[in-house]
């Protein structure tokens, strides 16, 4: 193997190169256009959540971006990666140090030089020693392993920064999603509460008619059962509202027991138009999570060069200048100084089997990173196409449900009028109540799903 038979005559040439190959971004095949993209103009640059036109949502997202602890962790990882890059760069530079030491020792007369004390009258058992020295060392990066290490650290910093940007998009989207779900549940609760009040009024009316022998016992029990069924829909909705309030509190960096910021008061379900998505190729450049995956791939490629550099010898230079004396007054005298220079060579000549394994492991990491990047691209495309489809389906459903709600409202009023006139039984009124509740709840849920799909589109587009 050529690497294993390298000669010292090639060492000067190694100083001008670096082990391994330069990184080239992979070519990932993508479609020319999205299948389900909306026919809408591109939106102008800016915060996507402002498209919902809800000041409360704007404030919540701003608070989450400033106080969320997941973002804080991501920024800490950026700081750590930046420190790693500085450390990798420092490896290429000479290292220097200054040392000072003062010691006092009482020697044993039963070991070492102390045994000679009997042959030398007045031999001092207690001695002092003072040292002051400065040294420098430098590993010459012949094979470029240190340069590849710095290159990998730079890629890892870029990956950390992109991951931080991706986390900001995730937190903003999660906050908006929780807010939309909160407003959806509050709307459904308001509809159920209104119907529950109507059911109670109906029960009271049936009780009066039953007392006057104008309504049967069966009609009374039917009215009571319907009212109980309507009341039973309220606790799950209240629990869902509480869960979303807790979720928003944590996303904004507060305890779930914190003050609700007025969010417990009902509000309208916000919605926003979804702009066109551009092309799949543009998505690769603007989604920070895909940028992070590609940068991690670049770092793993550079780490192969670090491993390959271990096949070659490593040359280091060092120097030491200092003073050493047994008395502090003599420490800086001319006779107390000493100078040392050294050149060192380290070569894992008989350890190539282990280096082979290290290189193979580095190549395996790169292969895994490449597969992870390609998978991330596929999943990103899947997320966006799914969000487009969900948005279109929810909007179409909301249109149909709005018509259903209008018809159910008319049917409910007509049924009650007919029952009061004795033309239909109470069961028709109860059925009309149930249909009205289902229509209002389904419409609110569909509107919420449309808004959540819009959030998913913006998130899948990289916050654009």
UniProtKB/TrEMBL annotation:
Major location (coarse): membrane
Superkingdom of origin organism: Bacteria
InterPro entries: MdtP/NodT-like (IPR010131), OMP_efflux (IPR003423)
UniProt KW Transmembrane keyword: yes
Secretion signal, residue range per the UniProt entry: 1-18
Single GO molecular function: efflux transmembrane transporter activity
GO-annotated cellular components: plasma membrane
Cellular localization per UniProt: Cell membrane
Membrane-related topology note: Lipid-anchor
KW Cell division (keyword) present: no
Record keywords, A-Z: Lipoprotein, Membrane, Palmitate, Signal, Transmembrane, Transmembrane beta strand
Pfam families: OEP
Family statement drawn from the similarity comment of this UniProt entry: Belongs to the outer membrane factor (OMF) (TC 1.B.17) family.
PANTHER family in the cross-refs: OUTER MEMBRANE CATION EFFLUX PROTEIN, OUTER MEMBRANE PROTEIN-RELATED
Name of the protein: Transporter
Source lineage: Bacteria, Pseudomonadati, Pseudomonadota, Alphaproteobacteria, Sphingomonadales
């Amino acid at each position: 193997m050529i690497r294993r038979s390298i000669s010292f005559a090639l060492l000067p040439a190694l100083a001008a190169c670096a082990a391994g190959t330069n990184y080239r971004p992979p070519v990932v095949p993508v479609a020319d256009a999205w299948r389900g993209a909306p026919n809408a103009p591109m939106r102008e640059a800016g915060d996507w959540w402002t498209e919902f036109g809800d000041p409360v949502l704007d404030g919540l997202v701003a608070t989450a971006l400033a106080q969320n602890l997941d973002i804080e962790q991501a920024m800490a990882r950026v700081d750590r990666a930046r420190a790693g890059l500085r450390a990798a760069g420092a490896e290429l530079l000479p290292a220097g140090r200054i040392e000072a030491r003062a010691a006092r020792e009482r020697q044993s007369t039963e070991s070492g030089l102390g045994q000679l004390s009997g042959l030398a009258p007045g031999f001092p058992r207690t001695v002092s020693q003072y040292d002051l020295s400065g040294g420098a060392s430098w590993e010459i990066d012949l094979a470029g392993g240190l340069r590849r290490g710095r290159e990998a650290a730079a890629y890892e910093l870029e990956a950390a920064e992109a991951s931080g940007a991706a986390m900001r998009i995730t937190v903003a989207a999660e906050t908006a999603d929780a807010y939309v779900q909160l407003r959806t549940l509050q709307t459904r609760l308001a509809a159920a509460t209104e119907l529950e009040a109507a059911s109670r009024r109906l029960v009271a009316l049936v009780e009066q008619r039953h007392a006057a022998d104008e309504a049967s016992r069966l009609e009374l029990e039917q009215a009571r059962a319907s009212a109980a069924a309507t009341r039973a829909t309220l606790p799950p909705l209240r629990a869902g509202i509480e869960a979303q309030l807790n979720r928003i509190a944590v996303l904004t960096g507060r305890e779930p027991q914190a003050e609700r910021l007025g969010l417990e008061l009902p509000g309208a379900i916000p919605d926003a138009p979804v702009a066109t998505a551009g092309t799949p190729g543009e998505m690769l450049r603007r989604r920070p999570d895909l940028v992070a995956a590609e940068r991690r791939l670049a770092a793993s490629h550079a780490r192969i060069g670090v491993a390959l550099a271990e096949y070659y010898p490593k040359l280091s230079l060092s120097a030491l200048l200092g003073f050493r004396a047994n008395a502090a007054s003599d420490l800086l005298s001319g006779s107390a100084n000493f100078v040392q220079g050294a050149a060192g060579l380290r070569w894992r000549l008989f350890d190539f089997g282990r280096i082979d394994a290290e290189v193979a492991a580095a190549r395996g990491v790169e292969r895994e990173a490449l597969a992870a990047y390609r998978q991330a691209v596929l999943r990103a495309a899947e997320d966006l196409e799914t969000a487009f489809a969900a948005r279109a389906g929810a909007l179409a459903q909301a249109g149909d449900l709005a018509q259903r709600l209008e018809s159910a409202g008319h049917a409910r009023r007509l049924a009650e009028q007919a029952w009061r006139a004795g033309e239909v039984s109470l069961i028709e009124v109860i059925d009309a109540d149930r249909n009205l509740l289902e229509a209002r709840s389904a419409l609110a849920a569909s509107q919420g799903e449309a808004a959540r799909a819009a959030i998913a589109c913006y998130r899948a587009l990289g916050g654009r």
